Each structure stands twice: as C-alpha cells, then as structure tokens.
Amino acid sequence: MKKEYELKLQITDKTLEIFPGKLIDAEKLIRLNPLWTVLSFKQDGDTFQAELKDYSSEREFILNGSFVSGTPAMLNVEFTEGDYNFLSITPVKDNYLATVVYTDPEFEEESELERHTVMWLRGIQEYLRLYQKKTINTVLFRYIMNRIVLTMTPSQRKICLMLLRLTVVEVVVILIIVIGYVFFVLNRN
C-alpha cells in the first residue's frame, strides 16, 4: 500500500534550501521516530540494520534498509525488513512530499501503524524545519536536537520535557515573587 503525506515545509524565498538527503542519515532517521528505542544499530555504507523496541507496544523488531542514491534534495530509503518497503521525501512545487510504501497489503488507513508513521513524519518534518532558517534560536535548537534529544529514549524525552515544564513554572513563580517584593515592599518606603 502506497500513501503520500504532505509535509508542511514551505519552500519560499525567505527559507533556506534544505537537503533531506544530506541532513538525515540512517541513525537520525531511526531516532526521529518518537516511539522507537534503539537497542542496537549497525551501518555499512548505505545499508543499515537497527534492532528497535516500540515504546507503546513493547514489541521488539528489526528494521533493515538502505539509502537509494538520488539528489541531495531527496531522501529515499528502501526497507528490506519491517513495516515499510519504501520511504521517500521529495520537494514538489512549493512543499515537500513524503511517500510511504507499507509492507502490509491489507494496510488500513487511520490504523495504529499509520498514526505511528504520521508521528515519525512529523519528527522528520520538525527536524528539517530547524534547517530552513539560520537564526540563533534554530542553531541552538539544532544543537540541542542533535546532541541531546536524539540520543534519548522515548521515556527519557518525556521525563526531560516534564522537568523542563516544571523549571519554567518555577522561574515564573520566582519572577512573580521578586516583582511583587519590589513593587509592594520597596516602593512603600
């Protein structure tokens, strides 16, 4: 079953040209799936093998594949084992299009597999979005994504996000207390 998904990555004069074929290697491609824990990963040239564990179902499986050569603006991956036969990300007019060929001939739309695929494609989309602009913010988030987030397991990412939210709340509460102190105590004198 072949299905196409539109990635919301507008190609305009204001955005930098991105090259998915250069930006995403096999390990990043695997780690961009928010539900997969990488148990082992081996790469030999353009071929790779990953032993994965699905976070939501606790199912362990192997994903084999190889990168098919193309232009740097395209990302083409053929899978020889797993739920997918082919994944392609190509620029089409003013946007990027992801094409996924599923292994299961009885694939049903809006199934759990498709929901997981859409989450994976969103991870890839947001990763590529970081390379559409070159600002201090995007450079900082690229560093965080490449050095920290992609090395984590899904459960570690959830814990990290929870701690980050708590830290933001703590900082806001401290600022409110300091502003209240300055406004009510120091301005009374």
Molecular structure report:
By secondary structure, the chain is α+β, with helices and mostly antiparallel strands. It has five helices and seven strands; from the N terminus they run E-H-H-E-E-E-E-E-E-H-H-H. The chain has helices at 20-23, 26-31, 112-129, 136-147, 154-186; strands at residues 2-7, 36-44, 47-54, 60-67, 75-81, 84-92, 95-102. A seven-stranded antiparallel sheet has the order 1-7-6-5-4-3-2. It is globular and about 75 Å long.
Sheet-strand content, in percent, reads 25-35%
**N to C succession of SSEs:** EHHEEEEEEHHH
Main-sheet strand order equals 1-7-6-5-4-3-2
Structural class determined from secondary elements: alpha+beta
Distance between the termini: 75 Å
What is the averaged pLDDT score?
A: 89
